[in-house]
Amino acid sequence: MRASKPNFLERLKSKWQLNSLLQVVLVLIVFALTGFTILFIKKPIFDFLGISMERGGFWKTVLYLLLVLPLYQIILLIWGFIFGQFHFFWEKEKAFFRRIIKKK
Q: Is the pTM of this model over 0.85?
């Protein structure tokens, strides 16, 4: 008899070195809430700066990278704290910044 392949949540648990499937679900919820939060605040930020959401362009991309992506990281930590997963996300943030610094 063949051993069963671990399901998606079990693989995430192993990859992220989490303790339980509940923790995996909480981390996924934090990612989802962070994405939705950014979705809702991106337009008001761009409106405040006078940038049209309908038109693309170089400056819109630059501002997105300079403003929205760092904001995403902060909101990720906030939601992580609310759901009791701050340590997990803080470790991921530190690893993210170490990779960015290494590439320079």
A: no
